[in-house]
Design brief:
The protein is an alpha/beta fold. It folds into two domains: 34 residues, no CATH class; 191 residues, 3-Layer(aba) Sandwich (Rossmann fold), CATH 3.40.50. Helices cover 36% and strands 14% of the residues. It is built from nine helices and nine strands. The strands form two sheets. A seven-stranded mixed sheet has the order 5-4-3-6-7-9-8, with helices on both faces. Strands 1-2 form a two-stranded antiparallel sheet. Strand 6, helix 8 and strand 7 form a beta-alpha-beta unit. The longest helix has 17 residues. The relative contact order is 0.13. InterPro entries: SAM-dependent_MTases_sf (IPR029063), TylF_MeTrfase (IPR008884).
Length: 280
C-alpha cells in the first residue's frame, strides 16, 4: 500500500504493531540467566555464579541471538525487549478480527487470557482508540505470576509440563500496567483480572464478548477459559487460539469443540495460531 493512500489510523496501528513486537529494531542479546532453568545442574550453577559476580560490577553475561525476519514474523522468538511474543502475523490477525466485529456491529468486549507483558491487549486497546470506540472494554486476564503447576491426575495432557518453572513468563501486573501507560493506553476501558483462571473467570464481570483470545499454553488454562468465556462470545465474534501447536492447548481446544459440537471452520494464522468465527 502506498504511504500517501494510508489512513492515519492504519499508519498508527502499523507502527503500534511493530513497536510492540520490537520488529523496528534488531533483536538484542539476552541475559544467559533467562533460560538457565533448562540447563543441567552444574551448568546452571556456573551461569548463576558468574552472573552474580558480574552483577557486583554492573556487568551482565549475555547471549547474542540472531533471528531471521521469518522467525520474527511468525512469533518463533522469545524476545528480550518486545512487549509481545506473538509475532506480526498473529497481530495482523487480531487487527482483522477486531475490525471485522466493529464493521459488522458484533457487540461485546475483548479479552485475552494469558497476557505476558500485555502486548496483545495493548494492541486491542490501540485498535479501539484508533476507531474512537468507547463502549467496549479490554479484559486483561492473567495470574501475573506465571503458569500454574500441572495437575496431571485431573488433566493428563499437562503431565510433564514445565511452563510453571519459567521465570521469563512471570510478569507482574504492575509491569503490564506500566506498559499500557507507556503507549498512552491505560484507562477505564482496560480491566485487569488477576488470578488463576479457574478462580477469576467464573465470576468475571463479563456479559458479552466479541473477541476471545486464548494464550494459556496448557490444557487446564485453555479449558478453563473456553468453559467460562466461550458461552459469552457473540455469534459473529472470533475465538483466537495462540498456542495450538502446544499439545495441551490443542487437546483442550479439540475436546471442547467436540463436546459442544462446534463445527465452525478453524483457520490457520501461522505455525501455532488458529481462529474461528462463531456462527451460533
Amino acid at each position: 500500500m502506498q504511504l500517501m493512500k494510508m489512513h492515519p489510523k492504519d499508519l498508527y496501528l502499523d507502527l503500534l504493531k511493530k513497536s510492540l513486537s520490537f520488529t523496528l529494531w534488531p533483536e538484542p542479546p539476552i541475559p544467559v540467566t533467562t533460560f538457565a532453568y533448562a540447563a543441567g545442574f552444574l551448568k546452571r550453577v556456573a551461569i548463576m555464579t558468574v552472573s552474580k559476580m558480574l552483577a557486583t560490577r554492573d556487568l551482565q553475561l549475555v547471549k547474542k541471538r540472531g533471528f531471521s525476519e521469518y522467525q520474527r514474523q511468525e512469533g518463533r522468538v522469545w524476545p528480550g525487549y518486545a512487549d509481545t511474543m506473538i509475532g506480526l502475523k498473529r497481530l495482523d490477525n487480531l487487527q482483522e478480527c477486531i475490525e471485522s466485529v466493529i464493521e459488522e456491529g458484533i457487540g461485546g468486549d475483548l479479552i485475552e487470557t494469558g497476557v505476558w507483558r500485555g502486548g496483545a491487549c495493548i494492541f486491542m486497546r490501540g485498535v479501539l482508540a484508533a476507531y474512537q470506540i468507547q463502549d467496549r472494554r479490554v479484559f486483561v486476564a492473567d495470574s501475573f505470576q506465571g503458569l500454574p503447576p500441572p495437575a496431571p491426575k485431573r488433566y493428563p495432557a499437562d503431565a510433564g509440563d514445565a511452563f510453571h518453572r519459567q521465570e521469563f513468563l512471570r510478569v507482574s501486573e504492575e509491569e503490564v500496567r506500566k506498559n499500557f501507560a507507556r503507549y498512552g493506553l491505560l484507562d477505564e476501558q482496560v480491566v485487569f483480572l488477576k488470578g488463576w483462571f479457574k478462580d477469576t473467570l467464573p465470576t468475571a464481570p463479563i456479559t458479552r464478548l466479541s473477541i476471545l483470545r486464548l494464550d494459556g499454553d496448557m490444557y487446564e488454562s485453555t479449558l478453563d477459559a473456553l468453559t467460562h468465556l466461550y458461552p459469552t462470545l457473540s455469534p459473529g465474534g472470533f475465538c483466537i487460539i495462540d498456542d495450538y501447536a502446544e499439545h495441551g492447548c490443542r487437546q483442550a481446544v479439540d475436546d471442547y469443540r467436540d463436546a459442544h459440537q462446534i463445527r465452525d471452520e478453524m483457520h490457520i494464522i501461522d505455525w501455532t495460531g488458529r481462529y474461528w468465527k462463531k456462527s451460533a
